[in-house]
Design a protein that fits this description.
The complex is a heterodimer of chains A (396) and B (415).
Chain A: H1 2-5, E1 13-17, E2 29-35, E3 38-45, H2 53-57, H3 62-70, H4 77-92, H5 98-127, H6 131-151, E4 160-161, E5 164-165, H7 173-195, H8 199-205, H9 213-218, H10 224-228, H11 235-238, H12 259-283, H13 301-306, H14 308-319, E6 327-335, E7 338-346, E8 352-358, H15 361-371, H16 377-387, H17 391-395
Antiparallel strand pairs in A: 1-2, 2-3, 4-5, 6-7, 7-8
Helix pairs in contact in A: 3-4, 4-5, 5-6, 5-12, 5-16, 6-7, 7-12, 12-16, 15-16
Chain B: H1 2-33, H2 53-64, H3 75-91, E1 102-104, E2 107-109, H4 119-140, H5 144-175, H6 180-187, H7 195-198, H8 200-213, H9 225-228, H10 238-263, H11 274-279, H12 281-304, H13 319-341, H14 348-378, H15 386-414
Antiparallel strand pairs in B: 1-2
């Protein structure tokens, strides 16, 4: 009797997911302890893409940091540009003209759409549905082309400047954006049609990686992942910046906080971003796109060559750059993944004394190892995709 | 003796030559589904065959690639696994009938390599052996991803074989024979008497199980590239990898052939029985040749309309002419010859061969359609999770199969 009851001795297996693994977009690493296919324990490690963004910034002038911010969340680089410039402008106390703000809003919302397209597309690829990816990337390509026409770059734009944007949009831009938005809607409808009621997709994602309201707040989630858990928190509504309080748009909220909800929240956010873009484009009036504050903007050439004050201002800006008053500032914007905060300390010199970034991915990835315990390998992949972790931003 | 060798070789070569075609179909088909262009770069003196030359380029690349055998593998099994996978996938064709048997000088002549009276059992046996290739590859690679892939694959194949077997039994009960040829004959030439209508549940079960047996989406867990890197063939390179790749497509062709045979009347031409085809062979040949002539001409003219000088600025410009002009000429010649010749007068043997050729073509068309079906599904659906897959196999398909069996039995008894 005893021998029959004795169970077979089994060992768990350690499996490396990453840093080089097809589903670990970028260089993420999670070590998982497997019992068969069940994850017993998991431990994440970050830092494979650490590029010393924060330390590097301390040795750059304020303008020189802008290109570095492109490399944070490279899927929606314009939002990082805007977030950083807004923080410095807050430190300097500069008001940017309305046309600049509207252009920034349009660019931010286009970036949000692109970010969500990539996130949902790659998440579906990880789940095994490959075709949706191309439906999304086709329209993403079209948005890229539009943004390239404005900024001159396709991935790392460095488009904003402290006090404004680098150059104005071209006259046909609003019309072209509106026509591309129609195609975005079409693509979203196509993909929704393929997945929303798809039995396999629903079974793979519903109640997988569930995060309750309480947990989401405790773990510091922001953005779509927080809203999927039922917390109606969006900086664009709760602490409106720019002109977001004047636009008519809704914040999508889901209840369950599972992978399915996170995907659906993103689908809806794409649509809402489209609404914001339409309103912002309609409000666009001719005008300057850059503040005329002498601390940040170059004097016109006639002044440089015609007056000593102009020449000195030019010299100061070229040699010293922007010198904000001593002090510190925290400024947060709602990026595609959640709250993107820049904490800047200035000692009055041309270099920032300290820049600290609050990346939305960091709390998400920190919670990842807790979320996947007790689930299967395939679930871990599906959850990771739905969290949308961008390593450039996570490791900085 | 020669006939036997030919009988073995010809089906084998047909299948083997279908593999590169299927790979091309998969690439172009997925490109069509996904709004892309698909392969169109590989060219030989400007001739690209719509990207089909990529398969040739792939073969050359895979053959000439360094064959890496990692130090940590269990070498005998590691080497054996790809051969096993491909061999098992290929030998299954031995029992597939390609046309109605004909009589030459009073001797029956069958269009299958081995006319086994237990054809279906042979297919099931060979399909079960297929798991060994995958399992051995997964185990002998001594790699955790491969091991997980091998475990998934063996569990999956074992569970789905049961559903497959159950669905087959009900087909056997209706058809009353284990011999594939008899099963096809018993289905008749009318599409509404084919088994997919008389045995719809068995058809769905068998198709699902066939997807699982071929390890393709939505059942591609053993590979599951986003989870297990490449699953059981992670450690394989060059031609060994290609053998697994070919085995997958060979399995697809075999599964398509089986679906066509068991549920869609195999080589039966819709609405035209073998006797009808043999009686009307002369007229049939006339119509067939004329139709082909017109088809060639239409295809050739269609190709010629694509011609635009300076499109690429090199030899590729003239590719459509290289194919289009001969096609138009051949089509023109064929139609003129047929029209001038009038109706054909065939000998009894000739009419039998004509019927066999038409049936063979019909069968291949059916196989190709189901191959396309496999590709279509693969690029549309997401992948299952391991436990869901097992749940579907044991909790849904097995009871359904048993129920279908009971219902079929009762109906057959009542009749």
């Amino acid at each position: 009797m005893n021998t029959a009851k004795r169970e077979l001795e089994t060992n768990t297996m350690l499996l490396n997911l990453g840093p080089s693994h097809p589903a670990m977009h970028g260089a993420l690493r999670t070590q998982i302890e497997l019992d068969g296919e069940l994850i017993v324990r998991a431990a994440s490690e970050m830092g494979y893409l650490h590029r010393c963004f924060e330390k590097h910034s301390e040795h750059s002038t304020y303008q020189q940091v802008i290109p570095y911010t492109d490399r944070l969340n490279y899927l929606s680089a314009l939002m990082n540009n805007v977030g950083y410039c807004r923080a410095v402008e807050k430190l300097l106390g500069i008001e940017t003209p309305e046309r600049c703000i509207l252009i920034r809003v349009v660019m931010c919302e286009l970036s949000r759409i692109m970010d969500h397209l990539v996130c949902v597309g790659t998440n579906l690829v990880d789940i095994g549905a490959l075709t949706n990816f191309w439906y999304f990337f086709n329209v993403r390509e079209k948005i890229y082309t539009l943004i390239e026409k404005v900024t001159g770059a396709r991935l790392t734009y460095a488009y904003t400047r402290i006090g404004g944007v680098a150059r104005d949009i071209y006259p046909d831009f609003p019309a072209e954006v509106k026509s591309v938005l129609k195609e975005v809607d079409q693509a979203v409808n196509d993909v929704r049609g393929l997945v929303v009621n798809n039995r396999i997709f629903v079974e793979r994602t519903v109640d997988v990686g569930r995060v309750t309201k309480q947990q989401a707040i405790e773990w510091g989630f922001t953005g779509p992942c927080l809203r999927a858990s039922g917390v109606p928190h969006d900086l664009r509504k709760s602490e409106p910046y720019y002109l977001y309080n004047e636009f008519d748009f809704d914040i999508p909220i889901a209840e369950n906080g599972d992978t399915y909800d996170r995907t659906m929240v993103r689908f809806e956010e794409i649509r809402q971003s489209g609404r914001i873009i339409h309103q912002a484009l309609d409000r666009l009036r001719p005008g300057p796109v850059h503040s005329d504050d002498p601390r940040v903007v170059m004097p016109p050439k006639e002044e440089v060559y015609g007056s000593i004050e102009g020449l000195m201002r030019h010299f100061k800006l070229i040699m010293h750059g922007i010198e904000p008053p001593p002090g510190e500032v925290y400024s947060a914007t709602e990026a595609a993944n959640g709250e993107l905060g820049f904490y800047i300390v200035s000692d009055g010199s041309m270099h920032p004394y300290r820049i600290k970034v609050r990346p939305p991915c960091f709390p998400l990835f920190a919670a990842f190892e807790k979320m996947i315990e007790g689930l299967m390998v395939a679930d871990a992949i599906a959850i990771l995709g739905s969290l949308n972790i961008v390593v450039g931003e996570l490791d900085r | 003796m020669l006939i036997i060798i030919l009988k073995i070789l010809i089906p084998f070569l047909i299948i083997f030559n279908m593999i590169p075609f299927l790979i091309w179909l998969e690439r172009k088909g997925s490109a069509y589904i996904q709004d892309r262009h698909g392969p169109n770069r590989a060219a030989f003196f400007g001739i690209r065959l719509g990207g089909m030359l990529h398969s040739l380029a792939d073969v050359l690349k895979l053959i000439t690639k360094e064959d890496i055998i990692p130090l940590h593998v269990h070498k005998p099994f590691y080497l054996l696994a790809p051969f096993l996978a491909l061999t098992v996938a290929c030998v299954t064709y031995a029992v597939v009938p390609f046309a109605h048997p004909i009589e030459i000088n009073g001797e029956p002549f069958t269009f299958q390599a081995a006319d086994l009276n237990v054809g279906i059992l042979y297919i099931l046996a060979m399909a079960s052996l297929g798991v060994y290739g995958v399992m051995l590859a997964g185990w002998s690679s001594n790699n955790k991803y491969s091991l997980l892939g091998g475990v998934r694959s063996s569990a999956q194949m074992l569970s789905y074989e049961i559903a497959m077997g159950l669905s087959l039994i009900s087909v056997l009960m209706v058809g009353g024979s284990l011999e594939l040829n008899n099963l096809v004959i018993s289905q008749g030439a009318t599409p509404w008497s084919w088994n997919f209508l008389t045995q719809p549940v068995a058809f769905f079960l068998f198709t699902t199980a066939a997807f699982a047996e071929t390890n393709r989406n939505p059942f591609d867990l053993p590979e599951g590239e986003s989870e297990l890197v490449a699953g059981y063939h992670t450690e394989y390179s060059s031609m060994k990898f290609a053998m697994f790749f070919m085995a997958e497509y060979a399995h697809v062709i075999m599964a398509s052939a089986l679906i066509a045979l068991l549920f869609f009347g195999g080589w039966q031409v819709p609405l035209m029985s073998t006797d009808f085809l043999r009686e009307q062979a002369g007229l049939g040949l006339y119509i067939l040749l004329l139709a082909h002539g017109i088809l060639f001409m239409v295809a050739g003219i269609f190709l010629l309309t694509w011609f635009k000088k300076g499109k690429y600025g090199d030899l590729r410009d003239y590719e459509v002419l290289v194919w289009g002009i001969p096609l138009v000429l051949a089509g023109l010649g064929l139609s003129l010859y047929t029209l001038l010749h009038g109706s054909f007068d065939l000998t009894p043997l000739g009419s039998q061969i004509f019927a066999a050729v038409v049936q063979f073509m019909t069968f291949m068309a059916k196989i190709l359609f189901f191959c396309w079906f496999f590709i279509w599904i693969r690029w549309t659906l997401p992948r299952f999770r391991y436990d869901q897959l097992m749940g579907l196999g044991w909790k849904v398909m097995l009871p359904l199969g048993l129920m279908n069996l009971a219902v079929t039995g009762i109906i057959l008894l009542m009749r």
